[in-house]
Amino acid sequence: MTTSTLDAPFALARYREGDAVRLGLVAGDRIRPLDAEDLGAADLNGFLAAPDWDRLAALAQADGPWRPLADVVLTAPVEPRQVLQTGANYRQHVIELVAAGLTNTSDRTPEEAREFAAKMMDDRAANGEPYFFIGLPACVVGDDVPLVLPAYSDVHDWELELAVVIGREAFRVSRADAASHIAGYTIVNDVTTRDLVFRKDMKEIGTDWYRAKNAPGFLPTGPFLVPAHLVEANDARLHLALNGETMQDASTSDLLFDIAALVSGASQTMPLLPGDILLTGSPAGNGQHWKRFLRDGDVMTGTIAGLGTQTVRCVADESV
Q1: How large is the greatest C-alpha to C-alpha distance in the chain, in angstroms?
Q2: Which residues contact 317 (CB under 8 A, 6 or more apart)?
Q3: Quick one: angle between helices 91-99 and 110-127, nearest 10?
Q4: Distance of alpha carbon 298 from its chain centroid, rounded?
Q5: In three state form, how does the secondary structure of 26-60 look?
Q6: In the chain, what is the straight-line distance between the N-terminal and C-terminal CA atoms, in Å?
Q7: What pLDDT, in 10s, does the model give residues 229-288?
Q8: How does pLDDT run across 165-179, given as a tens digit for each residue?
Q9: Are 319 and 17 in contact (CB under 8 A)?
């Protein structure tokens, strides 16, 4: 059953009803189903292409077939056709990666690596561009699905992230126009297998994001899709706890490239479609920093201000 609470006045969610998944409107501790007539569109992505949030705000105040939110099982609130991910977008996070010696082979001492990374981040913020890669939409699941930890590695890591949900199609848009293409926001934990990030058989190839980030269920998403105008996205607090202990605690105000820059930058290559998600990067405090990676029985709780809390339960891979 659903345990997360919603701080925003209302939001969209998807929930299980038998073998089917239905779209719902959440307000407070209640949820009601949404059909095409309620949405004014054929489906979720059709609505997001031209979202009429006033229409849903009115429904949130109206009588209807409401039921307790605690009585339903929520799943991922989005159905993206494309998933874009942003790397190295929190200054302190990258400094930790480099200092830990896990970004690539280097003869630098940890202190030298930290100084090098700090200078690199300052240079990027002043003169660089966002770094994007792509994920598989099939990896997007709700936190109702346990995270199965593949047996081929012992270094599966967490990365709590604010995710942009695209509204109106965005293709080669400017930073100034980027906000008009954002429908809302949700929570994503971008799970990463650290020892697969860099190829060992041919270091010149560089990163292997396919193997490192695209195992089944490696993008726990949700539980809510909150309208953009209800979220302080450029100064939102992110907090991830592992078995109740704080691991990540930061603000999106520390992003090297802000949300408008990310949407604009990602749209220069390929159109971003309604319902697509764009991950904005993860702050410091990953498992590689703590020298503690995910294990069978671990529970991660990820909270972003205004977006609720996601609870991911880890289980061992029993298929081997």
Answers
A1: 66
A2: 148, 149, 150, 151
A3: 150
A4: 19
A5: EECCEEEECCHHHHCCCCHHHHHHCCCHHHHHHHH
A6: 30
A7: 999 999 999 999 999 999 999 999 999 999 999 999 999 999 999 999 999 999 999 998
A8: 999 999 999 999 999
A9: no
